[in-house]
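Try it yourself: sequence plus adenosine-5-diphosphoribose, in.
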Amino acid sequence: MTSSPGTPEIVILTGAGISRESGLHTFRDADGIWAKVRIEDVATPEAFARDPARVHAFYNARRRQLHDPGIQPNAAHLALARLEQARPPGAVLVITQNVDDLHERAGTRSLLHMHGELRRVRCEHCGARHLWTDDLATTTPCPACARTGGMRPDIVWFGEMPVGLEQAYAALARCRLFVSIGTSGAVYPAANFVAEAREGGAHTLELNLEPSAQASHFHEHRHGPAATIVPAWVEQILASPSQNR
Ligand code: APR
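Structure, out:
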């Protein structure tokens, strides 16, 4: 399977597990975020309409973590950036479900945040998007239209449409290798990406701490902490580029 120039030959899906060794919690592990707070209270449009201050507090706390000097890209993020730099431009695409900025800070450039980003906010009044590092409140005026009450995290909540699906499906249909890293495979449409990639003839590899809900759909599995197994996989790929894996 060869991809035409510019279309990714390797598509990598990442989830919260890749950021766990950087100190960010996952969602569905025993110590995960959804063990402490309910999705219905902080991660749906209805929650924001009902209690915007509570939703802001939830995302403000997570946004503040991005400035914690103890939270840095780990060896897995850095290995993916190395892989991208070793390949022609556009040959590697990272599609992340994560809203942290650790892939960017590790140096990854070809990156799609399908669930949005903590460091972006948007105004529901005028639609303007802004890079944002501070706390957000119901009283925060939009820098574009100056109105208050409409600023929200630029995060895809449950029930909302993920970002960039057209680009993602086009890449999945034409890649020769699909790798899933640190995701439980519990949330669609990302959970279906492996099936889409297989449909297009790609080899599929799961790199995860343990078998995910989609494990049976992958040709190959390597289990262990991402900061260990991802660099090992990347070094193997860089040592023999012709290999699928
Ligand atoms: N290394 C590799 N994998 C790990 C590690 C680690 N150190 N620690 C945990 N994992 C794995 C877990 O075994 C699990 O399979 O990472 C996965 C994390 O799964 P979730 O917590 O469900 O996170 P994720 O798959 O990213 O969730 C998807 O659900 O709540 C929504 O929008 C949210 O983007 C999120 C989406």
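One thing you can check immediately is this: The pocket of adenosine-5-diphosphoribose is lined by residues 15-17, 20-21, 26-29, 32, 97, 115, 182-184, 186-187, 208-210, 212, 225-226 (CB under 6 Å).
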